[in-house]
Design brief:
Its EC number is 2.1.1.189. Pfam families: tRNA_U5-meth_tr. This is 23S rRNA (uracil(747)-C(5))-methyltransferase RlmC. InterPro entries: 23SrRNA_MeTrfase_RlmC (IPR011825), MeTrfase_TrmA_AS (IPR030390), MeTrfase_TrmA_CS (IPR030391), SAM-dependent_MTases_sf (IPR029063), U5_MeTrfase_fam (IPR010280). This protein is an alpha/beta fold. The protein has 10 helices and 17 strands. α3 crosses α4 and α9 packs across α10. The termini are far apart.
Length: 378
């Protein structure tokens, strides 16, 4: 992939961009195998990759510069701003929106936040696109609610220019720290979700809920999990750290009981909406802490699927799973280091198979799916 920003040394986020994808995959597989060196993996599956460019469905843009000439992109470590609107990871449809947002910022009087001076209002622009219909969600991350009515009054012009913006909201993030968003979300549109569809499964993207940024590879990840689960006699399944329910909804069947747990209420609302559209009835999505939920249960499922954040599932949940003894565990990880630590703690299980998913080409990051099977009792 060619990137003018990289060539000009203006952005080095894609540190592996000069390596062919085949070499990137080889290096990632080598690292993963080293991390699991002490584990007897029965079956190493071939890695799965997707497009090399224009694959992202979400942009997180730091807003800097002036209200008349805003820059959308990032800040270097020394505080120097960099405009990334021409980043080749974004599809062409994003560039159209960025081009309109720049004059809109001036029209709405949204002064970019100056980190050094701790002044200004507009901190970030968060843009998400549905691959299903091209509808988009735009979120303005503001320092306070001082400009809300001013922004609301200017929105009709923006909506006329960009009818693809189906969801628009403001998020209030008052803290002077590199935190992407705050707790308060102020909707500007009646519709507050985008519909997506992976492998025939409807999924919904809402503000403040996590959704994978590489739809092509994410669809392969969910489809693979479904394929693995269909091979096993599973009648009762937990989907922990379930997000919008992508894994559980792919794996569920009409005669299966599914419990999905996720701490973010917005994500649970999306998961319930999907389950209703699919007509699945024995599904229970709850907004709870996954570890706390699991360790308080006595009913043992056949399968526990975990998709934790980068910190992994941790010792408490590993200890509980060892003792609760579900027959199968499927572990989806965005951090192979913490996954390897957790697998080492799951001493009552053997690793049946492992597969790498290259969700983040041109970087060292990747996703992993692992199937663990309970060892027979001595």
């Amino acid at each position: 992939m060619h990137c003018a920003l990289y060539q000009a040394n203006r952005c080095r986020s894609c540190q592996w961009i000069e390596q062919p994808i085949s070499e990137q995959l080889t290096d990632k597989m080598n690292e993963l195998q080293q991390l699991l060196e002490g584990v007897a993996v029965q079956d190493w599956r071939a890695p799965i990759s997707g497009p090399e460019h224009a694959f992202r469905n979400k942009a997180k843009m730091v807003v800097s510069g002036s209200v008349e000439k805003p820059l959308l992109g990032m800040l270097h470590r020394d505080g120097t701003p960099e405009d990334l609107t021409e980043c080749p990871l974004y599809p062409a449809s994003f560039q159209v929106v960025f081009a309109v947002l720049k004059p809109f910022i001036a029209r709405a009087g949204l002064t970019p936040y100056n980190v050094a001076r701790k002044r200004g209002e507009l901190k970030y622009l968060l843009l998400t696109e549905s691959q299903l219909d091209g509808g988009m969600m735009l979120r303005f991350v503001l320092r306070s609610d001082a400009k809300i009515e001013q922004l609301r009054a200017a929105l009709p012009w923006l909506q006329q220019q960009l009818p693809q913006l189906k969801v628009i909201s403001a998020n209030i993030q008052p803290v002077h720290m590199a935190i992407m968003e705050g707790e308060q979300e102020i909707p500007f549109t009646e519709q507050q979700w985008l519909e997506e569809n992976f492998n025939g499964v409807p999924l919904y993207i809402r503000p403040q809920s996590f959704f994978q940024t590489n739809p092509t590879v994410a669809a392969s990840l969910y489809a693979t999990a479904r394929e693995w689960v269909r091979e096993m006699p599973v009648k009762h399944m937990w989907d922990l750290f379930c997000g919008v329910g992508g894994f559980g909804l792919h794996c569920a069947t009409p005669d299966m009981k599914l419990t999905g747990i996720e701490i973010a209420p917005e994500a649970i609302a999306s998961a319930r909406q999907s389950a209703e559209k699919l007509g699945l009835t024995d599904i229970h999505f709850q907004a709870l802490d996954s570890t706390k939920f699991a360790t308080e249960q006595e009913d043992i499922p056949d399968l526990v699927l975990v998709n934790p954040p980068r910190r992994g599932i941790g010792q408490a949940l590993c200890y509980f799973l060892n003792n609760m003894a579900p027959k199968y565990i499927i572990y989806s990880s965005c951090n192979a280091q913490t996954m390897a630590q957790d697998i080492a703690s799951l001493a009552e299980y053997r690793v049946e198979r492992v597969q790498l998913f290259d969700m983040f080409p041109h970087t060292a990051h990747y996703e992993v799916l692992a199937l663990l099977v309970r060892l027979p009792s001595p």
